[in-house]
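Notes taken during the Thursday session

The instructor put the following on the board and asked us to keep it in front of us for the whole hour. The protein is Carboxymuconolactone decarboxylase family protein. We were told not to look anything up and to reason only from what is written here. First, the residues (146 in total):
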Amino acid sequence: MQQRMNMFEVAPEGYKAVLGLEQYVRANVDHTLLELVKLRASMLNNCAFCVDMHSTDALKAGEDVRRLFAVSAWRESPFFSAEEQAALALTDEVTELGEHGVTDEVWAAAQDAFSDRELADLILAISTINVWNRIGVSTHLQPPAL
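Then, after some discussion, the predicted structure tokens were revealed:
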């Protein structure tokens, strides 16, 4: 599969705007939690570039490889804290809004795990990775060769 376009070259102002949001969430969301959220959304969106990047980044930051593999089956895994589970559930529902949106159950669990500000920043983080995934998938952005 060949990359269709380089968004930074074609629409640099738009790309920089998304990058600004990325910089905000990096500064305001716990790094470990952010990488789990990015990896989960990227898996749901089938973004090979982002799955590669965020799993690699998480490993470099010291994340356990078993936890990274378990992100794909997080509901059945014992490796995630209640806070991480709430964030992953929210990631699933924000990423796949479908007909139900974010359920009251998932919202309540997220509210129990995070302050209002943390929850707002988490929603911004989930939304941002979804923008990156949509850019990557639509333009056929590819991870570096092995």
